[in-house]
Prior knowledge:
Layout: H1 2-8, E1 16-22, H2 30-37, H3 40-43, E2 46-52, H4 55-64, E3 69-72, H5 73-81, E4 86-91, E5 98-102, E6 116-119, H6 125-136, H7 141-144, E7 146-149, H8 153-162, E8 167-171, H9 174-180, E9 184-188, E10 198-203, H10 204-209, H11 211-230, H12 232-243, H13 247-259, H14 269-282, H15 291-294, H16 298-308
Amino acid sequence: MVFALLSSAAGAPAAERVRIGYSVGGLIPFPLIVAKEKRFFEDAGLEAELINIPPTIAVTALISGDIQYVNFAGTTLNAAVRGLPVKLVMIYNDRPLFSLMSRPDIRSIKELKGKVLGVATLSSGESFLSRRVIKDAGIDAEKEMVLRVIGNTPDRLQALRAGVVDATTLTTPVDIQGERMGLRRLAFMGETLDSINGGFGVSERWLQQRPDQIKKIIAVAFRGMNHARAQRQESIALIMSRWKLDRDVADKAFDLMIKTWSENGTASDQALQQGIEESLKLSNSKQIVPITRVADFTIAREVYRELKGK
Length: 310
């Protein structure tokens, strides 16, 4: 039914335009890149515009209606915790596609005590992840490190290379490139942490008004993931082309990436609750935030059931 929905829309007289906010640099939006390259959006009757936008303004654009979807799952959750009218409707990375990287002279996470940790923003998903993996090593980053807001992945890489920060998170494949530049990978977070990483956030208004379009977008994302898995060499070639990587790096990046993909398009309640608690801790809030405030995976589950029934 889902792919029938995608293909039947292709004959529509005019494609419906949608705008999706995402961040360049890492492979988190790869299912969308595949879908764009293979014209899966067009098959669904959609004209998708992928817009590079900082997480700091993505939710504002979402609420205003300037964009309809954002690829920033952690940022969407944090905004929902603060009471903004947004929700997660799909998670396709349920493990983080990030590595904690450091200067080459730092050999373990335990050596980060008293050092400077670079983050995108204090409330970004990657900053929560870095603090979690550092805490698991026995260091409270908020109390025992200096947190320095740097910005997106390319800026954090440059800050680490320049010595402005001692450690930061870098998404794949930038972490692999960083290793080749002499930086040290202290941990690949996808091996140890559950998290909400890549996915779709929408405004509550859009969820109420356009569940039909949201279903198409989610189905397109599943189709992009399935195609990437089935066509490994084609996917690696696309990574090489779009991210300007050599084959060895692209090959390793692809293998790391697919390890982080969710099978059913949702995140566990445990991962969502962890994200809520981290967000509340950042604002020193004692309020109780139910999972239903931050996520509604009803449509994602429906699409997944239909795909499994094929």
